[in-house]
Design a protein that fits this description.
Elements lengths: L3 H18 L6 H23 L3 H12 L8 E2 L5 E2 L6 E7 L8 E8 L7 E6 L2 E7 L1 E4 L8 E8 L9 E5 L10 E6 L7 E10 L6 H14 L3 E6 L4 H12 L3 E5 L14 H4 L8 H12 L3 E6 L4 E5 L5 H8 L6 E12 L27 E2 L10 E5 L4 E4 L4 E4 L2 E4 L5 E7 L12 E2 L6
Parallel strand pairs: 1-10, 3-10, 11-12, 11-14, 12-13, 16-21, 16-22
Antiparallel strand pairs: 2-3, 3-4, 4-8, 5-6, 5-9, 7-8, 9-10, 14-18, 15-22, 16-18, 17-23, 19-20
Helix pairs in contact: 1-2
Bound molecules: 2-acetamido-2-deoxy-beta-D-glucopyranose (4 copies).
One 2-acetamido-2-deoxy-beta-D-glucopyranose (NAG) binds next to α5.
């Protein structure tokens, strides 16, 4: 007997429903009919309660519960859901059984000075009173901002197959008053080799030419999906993204973070102020990695003005096929960033095409001079990760992982990053001519 209490509860509810219906005196025959069924059901229930036929019982319960007793909770389809009675926000919940003792990982945005014990709440078989204590893991990379990306880990209660979850401040709180979020990654399978995660598009960003060229370059390199978190963008970029979304290459995730918080346009609280680092970049990168975990072999964590470019292989597929056998335990492949200053143009004008003249943005094919990084100072990387081996990521490195790290040699792969120069004092002759994009 696994769930007699649920059965009893249902039995009682059924009684109430039946009584209400039969309150109509004009329909006595109906009442008798209903009573007959009612008695029959009682016999069946007693039978199932007193035998070991758990299967029969379950089938009966699920059949009976189809109609009247559905879980009466609200389920949010939004990307950001305020958490009642707290200053925190829930973003997404994922099935994740990689850490022993836990089944669910909720990604949230938490106010660091207000973190108190919490409890996950589940609906099991139509009854929403099951809870389990939550383990709260704020990400260490908060750069001084009051809010930070936070993971909430929970165990699913026994004999429960929940499709949604919420978080309570007291295990005795009434879950019906709370908004639940769906649990993702329950039924996904690998269908992509490479997913690129682009965090938080905001302001009136309208660098259409570079965006379009970069997306096309990703396609040539074997990327199957680009996930973009959208707070806002410029009008031409909007049209471009709509069309890539229609063809299924781009997945747009609404990211209205400015409706809830004062997101910072910078990365350091002491310098830029605001509630949350760079429009929630760390939250979106982690959300994207978990969203891709069961469906994509690799995830590329870079910005839209960066291209992770193999220099010895035709594309990312053959690059990773060649790295994989020697580095099967590696979850984090670090790729060094190389800047191609936008102020230096390629002299022949070969790619200065008239049809692109009116398109707003940078033409990356015109910038072929590469700065060498200054070797004495910190130089950032971006990553190709195997999402199943990563637990928490930041922007330039992974914070918690199950696998190892490997720094991919420069000759094999580097990031082509067309933007303002980092070492503007260098003369053109001191830069390296690099036409890899032209290939
Ligand atoms: C949950 O509800 C069931 C059925 O109504 C009841 O038997 C059980 O005691 C409740 N559990 C808690 C923890 O309240
Ligand atoms: C819980 O809240 C729901 C909806 O607000 C309400 O209908 C129900 O009576 C409440 N249950 C308890 C035990 O307070
Ligand atoms: C993934 O890569 C393999 C080669 O390793 C290729 O055969 C397959 O078609 C690729 N899948 C997609 C969806 O691109
Ligand atoms: C991006 O978000 C803005 C603001 O919500 C919205 O108006 C726009 O349609 C979105 N663009 C795309 C391509 O999803």
């Amino acid at each position: 007997m696994r769930t007699p209490p649920a059965i009893l509860k249902f039995y009682l509810r059924l009684g109430i429903v039946m009584n209400t219906r039969t309150g109509n005196t004009n329909c006595l025959w109906k009442r008798d009919f209903v009573l007959l069924i009612f008695t029959g059901l009682m016999v069946l229930l007693i039978y199932s309660l007193t035998t070991e036929k758990i299967r029969t019982e379950r089938i009966l319960v699920s059949k009976l519960q189809e109609k009247p007793v559905l879980c009466p909770v609200a389920i949010s389809e939004e990307s950001i859901t305020p958490l009642k009675n707290t200053k925190h926000y829930l973003v997404s919940a994922f099935m994740d059984q990689r850490v022993k003792g836990f089944d669910i990982r909720i990604i949230g945005i938490f106010k660091r000075d207000s973190i108190n014990p919490l409890h996950c709440s589940f609906c099991c078989g139509g009854v929403c009173n099951k809870t389990s204590p939550a383990t709260i893991l704020p990400h260490s990379d908060h750069f001084g901002f009051p809010y930070t990306a936070t993971d909430v880990l929970c165990q699913i209660p026994k004999n429960c197959d929940p499709s949604s979850v919420t978080v309570l401040t007291q295990p005795s709180s009434n879950a019906s008053d709370h908004v639940f979020i769906p649990i993702r990654n329950k039924k996904e399978e690998i269908r992509f080799n490479f997913t690129v995660c682009i965090s938080s598009l905001f302001g009136d960003y309208n660098n259409v030419l570079q965006f379009a060229q970069t997306l096309e370059m990703y396609k040539l390199l074997g990327v199957n999906r680009v996930v973009i978190y959208n707070t806002s963008c410029g009008p031409e970029l909007e049209r471009l993204l709509q069309s890539y979304r229609q063809e299924g290459f781009v997945e747009m995730v609404p990211w209205p973070i400015d409706r809830f918080l004062n997101p910072s346009r910078g990365w350091l609280f002491s310098k830029h102020g605001g509630d949350l680092h760079y429009f929630g970049q760390i939250v979106t990168l982690n959300e994207c990695m978990y969203r891709s975990m069961e469906r994509s072999r690799y995830v590329l964590l870079n910005d839209i003005d960066e291209i992770i470019m193999p220099y010895k292989h035709e594309n990312l597929v053959s690059l990773m096929n060649s790295l994989e056998p020697q580095h099967s335990n590696v979850g984090e492949f670090l790729i060094e960033n190389h800047i191609f200053p936008k102020k230096h143009f390629e002299p022949s004008g070969r790619f200065h095409l008239p049809q692109w003249e009116k398109v707003p943005g940078i033409n990356i094919l015109e910038h072929i001079y590469r700065e060498d990084p200054e070797r004495g100072v910190y130089h950032p990387h971006k990553m190709i990760v195997k999402p199943k081996l990563i637990e928490q990521t930041s922007v330039h490195e992974v914070l918690r992982k199950f696998g190892e790290r490997y720094k991919v040699p420069l000759e094999v792969c580097r990031i082509i990053h067309v933007c303002v120069s980092m070492r503007g004092y260098l003369k053109l002759e001191e830069l390296n001519e690099d036409k890899r994009l032209w290939d």
